[in-house]
Amino acid sequence: MHAVVVGGGIGGLGAAAGLHRVGWQVTVLEQAPDFGDVGAGISLWPNALRCLDELGVDLGDPLAAQRDGGFRDRRGHRITRWDSAAFERLHGRPLGAIHRRDLITALKNAVPADSLRTGAKVTEVREDGLVRFDGGEINADLVIAADGIRSGVRRTLFPRHPEPVYAGSAAFRGIARRPGTELSTSFDRGVEVGVLPLTGDDVYWWISYLTEPGRNPGRPDFGAWHDPIPALLDATPPEALLHHDLYHLGTPLPAYTRGRIALLGDAAHAMPPFLGQGGCQALEDAVVLANAMSTKDVAKGLRAYDDERRPRSQKVARESVRMGKLGPQLTNPVATTLRTAALKMLPAKATVRMGAGITGWRPPRLPRSAPPRTP
Protein backbone atom coordinates (compact mmCIF):
# COMPACT_ATOMS: atom_id res chain seq x y z
CA MET A 1 0.00 0.00 0.00
CA HIS A 2 1.41 3.35 -1.09
CA ALA A 3 0.59 6.71 0.48
CA VAL A 4 1.55 10.12 -0.89
CA VAL A 5 1.89 12.99 1.55
CA VAL A 6 1.55 16.48 0.08
CA GLY A 7 3.59 18.80 2.29
CA GLY A 8 6.63 18.21 4.45
CA GLY A 9 5.89 20.18 7.60
CA ILE A 10 5.19 18.86 11.08
CA GLY A 11 1.88 17.22 10.17
CA GLY A 12 3.03 15.78 6.85
CA LEU A 13 6.22 14.26 8.22
CA GLY A 14 4.34 13.00 11.28
CA ALA A 15 1.82 11.25 9.04
CA ALA A 16 4.62 9.76 6.95
CA ALA A 17 6.38 8.47 10.08
CA GLY A 18 3.17 6.91 11.39
CA LEU A 19 2.21 5.24 8.11
CA HIS A 20 5.72 3.89 7.66
CA ARG A 21 5.57 2.54 11.20
CA VAL A 22 2.43 0.50 10.40
CA GLY A 23 3.84 -0.90 7.17
CA TRP A 24 2.93 1.51 4.37
CA GLN A 25 5.20 2.67 1.58
CA VAL A 26 5.30 6.46 1.77
CA THR A 27 6.31 9.30 -0.54
CA VAL A 28 6.48 12.85 0.84
CA LEU A 29 6.29 15.65 -1.73
CA GLU A 30 7.61 19.01 -0.52
CA GLN A 31 7.65 21.89 -2.98
CA ALA A 32 10.40 23.83 -1.16
CA PRO A 33 14.04 23.00 -1.98
CA ASP A 34 14.60 21.84 1.62
CA PHE A 35 12.52 20.48 4.45
CA GLY A 36 11.95 23.09 7.09
CA ASP A 37 9.28 25.00 8.93
CA VAL A 38 8.63 28.69 9.18
CA GLY A 39 8.96 29.77 12.77
CA ALA A 40 11.39 29.88 15.62
CA GLY A 41 10.34 27.52 18.39
CA ILE A 42 7.34 25.44 19.32
CA SER A 43 5.76 24.30 22.56
CA LEU A 44 5.03 20.59 22.80
CA TRP A 45 2.29 19.82 25.31
CA PRO A 46 1.93 16.31 26.80
CA ASN A 47 -0.59 15.24 24.15
CA ALA A 48 2.02 16.00 21.45
CA LEU A 49 4.87 14.32 23.34
CA ARG A 50 2.81 11.15 23.67
CA CYS A 51 2.11 11.26 19.93
CA LEU A 52 5.80 11.57 19.15
CA ASP A 53 6.50 8.56 21.36
CA GLU A 54 3.91 6.54 19.46
CA LEU A 55 5.32 7.65 16.11
CA GLY A 56 8.78 6.47 17.13
CA VAL A 57 10.26 9.97 16.95
CA ASP A 58 13.28 10.49 19.18
CA LEU A 59 13.69 14.16 20.10
CA GLY A 60 16.78 13.56 22.21
CA ASP A 61 18.73 16.48 23.67
CA PRO A 62 17.03 19.38 21.79
CA LEU A 63 13.85 19.06 23.87
CA ALA A 64 13.70 21.45 26.84
CA ALA A 65 11.34 20.61 29.71
CA GLN A 66 9.77 23.79 31.07
CA ARG A 67 10.17 24.62 34.73
CA ASP A 68 8.38 27.00 37.09
CA GLY A 69 7.07 30.25 35.67
CA GLY A 70 3.72 31.99 35.49
CA PHE A 71 1.56 34.87 34.29
CA ARG A 72 2.69 38.48 34.77
CA ASP A 73 1.51 41.95 33.87
CA ARG A 74 3.61 44.28 31.70
CA ARG A 75 5.47 45.61 34.75
CA GLY A 76 6.47 42.10 35.81
CA HIS A 77 4.13 41.76 38.76
CA ARG A 78 3.21 38.11 39.16
CA ILE A 79 -0.45 37.33 38.51
CA THR A 80 -0.30 33.60 39.12
CA ARG A 81 2.38 30.93 39.43
CA TRP A 82 2.75 27.87 37.21
CA ASP A 83 3.91 24.77 39.15
CA SER A 84 5.87 22.50 36.82
CA ALA A 85 6.09 19.62 39.30
CA ALA A 86 2.31 19.63 39.79
CA PHE A 87 1.83 19.83 36.02
CA GLU A 88 4.05 16.79 35.43
CA ARG A 89 2.34 14.79 38.20
CA LEU A 90 -1.05 15.52 36.65
CA HIS A 91 -0.13 14.87 33.02
CA GLY A 92 2.69 12.37 33.36
CA ARG A 93 4.77 14.50 31.01
CA PRO A 94 6.28 18.00 31.18
CA LEU A 95 5.56 20.92 28.91
CA GLY A 96 8.33 20.71 26.31
CA ALA A 97 9.86 23.24 23.94
CA ILE A 98 12.08 22.78 20.92
CA HIS A 99 13.48 24.60 17.90
CA ARG A 100 11.17 23.91 14.98
CA ARG A 101 14.15 22.91 12.86
CA ASP A 102 15.07 20.24 15.41
CA LEU A 103 11.54 18.88 15.45
CA ILE A 104 11.50 18.70 11.65
CA THR A 105 14.86 16.88 11.68
CA ALA A 106 13.61 14.35 14.24
CA LEU A 107 10.46 13.70 12.18
CA LYS A 108 12.53 13.31 9.00
CA ASN A 109 14.74 10.77 10.73
CA ALA A 110 11.66 8.60 11.39
CA VAL A 111 10.95 8.37 7.63
CA PRO A 112 13.14 6.51 5.10
CA ALA A 113 15.36 8.99 3.28
CA ASP A 114 14.33 7.66 -0.14
CA SER A 115 10.69 8.51 0.69
CA LEU A 116 11.42 12.25 0.87
CA ARG A 117 11.32 14.46 -2.23
CA THR A 118 11.96 18.19 -2.25
CA GLY A 119 11.37 20.63 -5.10
CA ALA A 120 8.27 18.61 -5.97
CA LYS A 121 5.41 21.02 -6.58
CA VAL A 122 2.09 19.20 -6.73
CA THR A 123 -0.02 20.27 -9.71
CA GLU A 124 -3.01 17.93 -9.42
CA VAL A 125 -4.60 15.68 -6.82
CA ARG A 126 -7.61 13.55 -7.72
CA GLU A 127 -10.02 11.76 -5.42
CA ASP A 128 -9.06 8.41 -7.00
CA GLY A 129 -5.52 8.84 -5.64
CA LEU A 130 -3.70 10.19 -8.70
CA VAL A 131 -1.09 12.79 -7.76
CA ARG A 132 0.76 14.77 -10.41
CA PHE A 133 3.80 16.84 -9.53
CA ASP A 134 6.84 18.41 -11.13
CA GLY A 135 8.80 15.35 -12.12
CA GLY A 136 6.12 12.68 -12.39
CA GLU A 137 2.90 11.20 -11.12
CA ILE A 138 1.90 8.52 -8.63
CA ASN A 139 -1.27 6.45 -8.40
CA ALA A 140 -1.59 6.25 -4.64
CA ASP A 141 -3.83 4.14 -2.42
CA LEU A 142 -4.02 7.08 -0.03
CA VAL A 143 -3.24 10.81 -0.30
CA ILE A 144 -2.61 12.98 2.76
CA ALA A 145 -3.03 16.70 2.15
CA ALA A 146 -0.78 18.40 4.70
CA ASP A 147 -0.19 21.49 2.57
CA GLY A 148 -0.96 24.13 5.17
CA ILE A 149 -3.50 26.81 5.90
CA ARG A 150 -3.73 27.87 2.24
CA SER A 151 -4.15 24.25 1.14
CA GLY A 152 -4.60 23.87 -2.60
CA VAL A 153 -5.94 20.34 -2.09
CA ARG A 154 -8.62 21.61 0.31
CA ARG A 155 -9.63 24.21 -2.25
CA THR A 156 -9.94 21.48 -4.89
CA LEU A 157 -12.05 19.23 -2.67
CA PHE A 158 -14.22 22.02 -1.21
CA PRO A 159 -14.18 24.82 -3.80
CA ARG A 160 -17.05 26.74 -2.18
CA HIS A 161 -15.71 26.57 1.35
CA PRO A 162 -14.73 29.98 2.84
CA GLU A 163 -11.05 30.82 2.86
CA PRO A 164 -9.15 31.37 6.13
CA VAL A 165 -10.07 34.54 8.01
CA TYR A 166 -7.94 37.06 9.87
CA ALA A 167 -7.81 36.28 13.60
CA GLY A 168 -7.55 39.95 14.61
CA SER A 169 -3.92 39.83 15.74
CA ALA A 170 -0.46 39.70 14.27
CA ALA A 171 2.63 38.15 15.84
CA PHE A 172 6.34 38.77 16.17
CA ARG A 173 8.55 35.76 16.91
CA GLY A 174 12.23 35.20 17.46
CA ILE A 175 14.99 33.37 19.29
CA ALA A 176 17.62 35.02 21.47
CA ARG A 177 20.34 33.70 23.76
CA ARG A 178 19.89 34.60 27.42
CA PRO A 179 20.95 32.20 30.20
CA GLY A 180 18.71 31.76 33.20
CA THR A 181 15.46 32.93 31.59
CA GLU A 182 12.31 31.34 32.99
CA LEU A 183 9.01 30.49 31.39
CA SER A 184 6.47 33.33 31.45
CA THR A 185 3.43 34.78 29.76
CA SER A 186 2.75 38.50 30.21
CA PHE A 187 -0.45 40.38 29.36
CA ASP A 188 -1.55 43.90 28.65
CA ARG A 189 -4.67 45.11 26.91
CA GLY A 190 -4.68 43.54 23.44
CA VAL A 191 -1.15 42.13 23.84
CA GLU A 192 0.49 38.90 24.98
CA VAL A 193 4.24 38.27 25.32
CA GLY A 194 5.40 34.69 25.76
CA VAL A 195 8.86 33.54 26.81
CA LEU A 196 9.79 29.88 26.35
CA PRO A 197 13.29 28.63 27.24
CA LEU A 198 14.91 26.20 24.79
CA THR A 199 18.12 24.23 25.23
CA GLY A 200 21.60 25.74 25.19
CA ASP A 201 20.52 29.08 26.73
CA ASP A 202 18.33 29.86 23.70
CA VAL A 203 14.96 31.45 24.41
CA TYR A 204 11.97 31.46 22.08
CA TRP A 205 9.77 34.52 22.47
CA TRP A 206 6.62 35.71 20.76
CA ILE A 207 4.35 38.74 20.84
CA SER A 208 0.75 38.73 19.65
CA TYR A 209 -1.03 42.06 19.40
CA LEU A 210 -4.27 43.43 18.02
CA THR A 211 -3.83 45.25 14.70
CA GLU A 212 -5.24 45.58 11.22
CA PRO A 213 -3.99 42.94 8.74
CA GLY A 214 -1.10 43.83 6.49
CA ARG A 215 0.61 46.25 8.90
CA ASN A 216 4.19 45.53 9.92
CA PRO A 217 5.66 48.14 12.28
CA GLY A 218 9.19 46.89 11.65
CA ARG A 219 10.76 46.17 15.00
CA PRO A 220 8.56 45.89 18.11
CA ASP A 221 9.04 48.49 20.82
CA PHE A 222 8.60 46.88 24.24
CA GLY A 223 11.26 48.78 26.16
CA ALA A 224 8.77 49.67 28.90
CA TRP A 225 7.93 46.04 29.63
CA HIS A 226 9.52 44.01 32.39
CA ASP A 227 12.83 42.16 32.21
CA PRO A 228 13.80 40.04 30.24
CA ILE A 229 11.48 41.12 27.40
CA PRO A 230 13.43 44.20 26.18
CA ALA A 231 16.73 42.28 26.44
CA LEU A 232 15.37 39.35 24.41
CA LEU A 233 14.16 41.65 21.64
CA ASP A 234 17.48 43.51 21.57
CA ALA A 235 19.40 40.21 21.37
CA THR A 236 17.39 38.94 18.37
CA PRO A 237 19.18 39.63 15.06
CA PRO A 238 17.00 41.69 12.67
CA GLU A 239 17.22 39.00 9.99
CA ALA A 240 15.88 36.41 12.46
CA LEU A 241 12.85 38.49 13.45
CA LEU A 242 9.61 37.01 12.12
CA HIS A 243 6.30 38.82 11.67
CA HIS A 244 3.03 37.26 10.51
CA ASP A 245 -0.63 38.12 10.44
CA LEU A 246 -2.60 35.37 12.18
CA TYR A 247 -5.26 33.53 10.19
CA HIS A 248 -7.46 30.55 10.94
CA LEU A 249 -10.12 28.44 9.28
CA GLY A 250 -13.13 30.31 10.60
CA THR A 251 -15.73 27.99 9.09
CA PRO A 252 -15.23 24.33 10.06
CA LEU A 253 -15.00 21.82 7.25
CA PRO A 254 -17.93 19.40 6.79
CA ALA A 255 -15.46 16.52 6.34
CA TYR A 256 -11.73 15.86 6.45
CA THR A 257 -11.84 13.23 3.72
CA ARG A 258 -12.95 12.84 0.10
CA GLY A 259 -12.34 9.75 -2.01
CA ARG A 260 -8.87 8.50 -1.10
CA ILE A 261 -7.76 11.86 0.31
CA ALA A 262 -7.37 12.90 3.94
CA LEU A 263 -6.82 16.50 5.03
CA LEU A 264 -4.45 16.89 7.97
CA GLY A 265 -3.07 19.65 10.20
CA ASP A 266 -3.61 23.26 9.15
CA ALA A 267 -5.14 22.10 5.86
CA ALA A 268 -8.00 20.61 7.90
CA HIS A 269 -8.32 22.82 10.99
CA ALA A 270 -5.98 25.82 11.01
CA MET A 271 -6.38 27.58 14.35
CA PRO A 272 -4.94 30.71 16.01
CA PRO A 273 -1.97 30.05 18.31
CA PHE A 274 -3.55 31.11 21.61
CA LEU A 275 -3.49 27.58 23.04
CA GLY A 276 -0.19 26.51 21.47
CA GLN A 277 -1.98 23.51 19.94
CA GLY A 278 -1.62 23.91 16.16
CA GLY A 279 1.35 21.58 15.75
CA CYS A 280 0.16 19.35 18.58
CA GLN A 281 -3.17 18.75 16.83
CA ALA A 282 -1.37 17.92 13.58
CA LEU A 283 0.60 15.23 15.44
CA GLU A 284 -2.63 13.87 16.90
CA ASP A 285 -3.98 13.67 13.34
CA ALA A 286 -0.89 11.76 12.25
CA VAL A 287 -1.20 9.07 14.93
CA VAL A 288 -4.95 8.60 14.50
CA LEU A 289 -4.60 8.35 10.73
CA ALA A 290 -1.78 5.79 10.99
CA ASN A 291 -3.79 3.72 13.44
CA ALA A 292 -6.87 3.87 11.20
CA MET A 293 -4.82 2.76 8.19
CA SER A 294 -3.04 -0.09 9.96
CA THR A 295 -5.63 -2.55 8.62
CA LYS A 296 -4.97 -1.35 5.04
CA ASP A 297 -8.73 -0.82 4.52
CA VAL A 298 -8.61 2.70 3.12
CA ALA A 299 -12.33 3.48 2.96
CA LYS A 300 -12.98 2.23 6.49
CA GLY A 301 -9.84 3.90 7.79
CA LEU A 302 -10.76 7.28 6.33
CA ARG A 303 -14.22 7.11 7.91
CA ALA A 304 -12.66 6.30 11.28
CA TYR A 305 -10.13 9.13 10.93
CA ASP A 306 -12.82 11.68 10.11
CA ASP A 307 -15.14 10.47 12.86
CA GLU A 308 -12.42 10.77 15.51
CA ARG A 309 -10.42 13.80 14.46
CA ARG A 310 -13.00 16.26 13.17
CA PRO A 311 -14.99 16.74 16.40
CA ARG A 312 -11.92 17.01 18.63
CA SER A 313 -9.74 19.23 16.44
CA GLN A 314 -12.63 21.58 15.66
CA LYS A 315 -13.40 21.83 19.38
CA VAL A 316 -9.75 22.72 20.09
CA ALA A 317 -9.88 25.31 17.29
CA ARG A 318 -12.98 26.92 18.80
CA GLU A 319 -11.35 26.94 22.23
CA SER A 320 -8.26 28.60 20.78
CA VAL A 321 -10.38 31.41 19.33
CA ARG A 322 -12.17 31.79 22.67
CA MET A 323 -8.92 31.92 24.64
CA GLY A 324 -7.65 34.64 22.34
CA LYS A 325 -10.69 36.77 23.08
CA LEU A 326 -10.33 36.21 26.84
CA GLY A 327 -6.57 36.68 26.86
CA PRO A 328 -4.34 38.58 24.44
CA GLN A 329 -7.25 40.14 22.53
CA LEU A 330 -9.07 41.49 25.57
CA THR A 331 -9.00 45.32 25.66
CA ASN A 332 -11.86 46.45 27.91
CA PRO A 333 -10.17 47.88 31.03
CA VAL A 334 -12.85 46.60 33.40
CA ALA A 335 -12.74 43.12 31.86
CA THR A 336 -8.94 43.00 32.00
CA THR A 337 -8.98 44.04 35.66
CA LEU A 338 -11.51 41.31 36.46
CA ARG A 339 -9.45 38.74 34.53
CA THR A 340 -6.32 39.64 36.48
CA ALA A 341 -8.18 39.45 39.79
CA ALA A 342 -9.64 36.04 38.90
CA LEU A 343 -6.23 34.66 37.93
CA LYS A 344 -4.64 35.94 41.13
CA MET A 345 -7.16 33.94 43.14
CA LEU A 346 -6.17 30.69 41.45
CA PRO A 347 -3.74 28.51 43.42
CA ALA A 348 -0.77 27.18 41.46
CA LYS A 349 -2.19 23.64 41.49
CA ALA A 350 -5.40 24.87 39.85
CA THR A 351 -3.44 26.68 37.15
CA VAL A 352 -1.88 23.45 35.88
CA ARG A 353 -5.34 21.92 35.47
CA MET A 354 -6.38 24.55 32.95
CA GLY A 355 -6.71 22.91 29.56
CA ALA A 356 -6.30 19.38 30.94
CA GLY A 357 -9.10 18.15 28.69
CA ILE A 358 -6.93 19.07 25.70
CA THR A 359 -3.43 18.24 26.89
CA GLY A 360 -4.52 15.04 28.65
CA TRP A 361 -5.49 13.33 25.38
CA ARG A 362 -3.79 9.99 24.78
CA PRO A 363 -3.11 8.58 21.30
CA PRO A 364 -4.03 5.08 20.17
CA ARG A 365 -1.26 2.50 20.22
CA LEU A 366 0.17 1.91 16.77
CA PRO A 367 0.69 -1.67 15.63
CA ARG A 368 4.34 -2.32 14.83
CA SER A 369 4.63 -3.64 11.28
CA ALA A 370 7.94 -4.48 9.72
CA PRO A 371 8.65 -2.33 6.65
CA PRO A 372 8.23 -4.16 3.31
CA ARG A 373 11.30 -6.07 2.22
CA THR A 374 12.86 -5.18 -1.10
CA PRO A 375 13.38 -8.06 -3.54
List keywords for this structure.
375 residues; alpha/beta; FAD/NAD(P)-binding domain; 7-stranded mixed β-sheet; 6-stranded mixed β-sheet; globular; disordered C terminus
Task: Give a quick summary of the entry.
The protein is an alpha/beta fold and 375 residues long. It has helices at 10-21, 46-55, 84-91, 100-109, 152-157, 229-234, 266-269, 278-292, 298-326, 333-344, 348-351, 356-359; strands spanning 2-6, 25-30, 41-44, 64-65, 69-73, 78-82, 96-99, 116-118, 122-125, 130-133, 136-139, 142-145, 165-177, 184-188, 191-197, 202-210, 242-248, 257-258, 261-263.
Task: Give a description of the structure.
The protein is of the alpha/beta class and 375 residues long. The protein has a domain at 2-64 and 98-165 and 248-327: 3-Layer(bba) Sandwich (FAD/NAD(P)-binding domain), CATH 3.50.50. It is built from 12 helices and 19 strands. It has helices spanning 10-21, 46-55, 84-91, 100-109, 152-157, 229-234, 266-269, 278-292, 298-326, 333-344, 348-351, 356-359, and strands spanning 2-6, 25-30, 41-44, 64-65, 69-73, 78-82, 96-99, 116-118, 122-125, 130-133, 136-139, 142-145, 165-177, 184-188, 191-197, 202-210, 242-248, 257-258, 261-263. It has a 7-stranded mixed β-sheet with strand order 6-5-14-15-16-13-17. Strands 8-2-1-12-19-18 form a 6-stranded mixed β-sheet. Helix 1 packs parallel to helix 4, helix 2 packs parallel to helix 8 (278-292) and helix 8 (278-292) runs antiparallel to helix 9. The protein is globular, with a radius of gyration of 21 Å. It starts with a strand and ends in a 16-residue tail after the last helix.
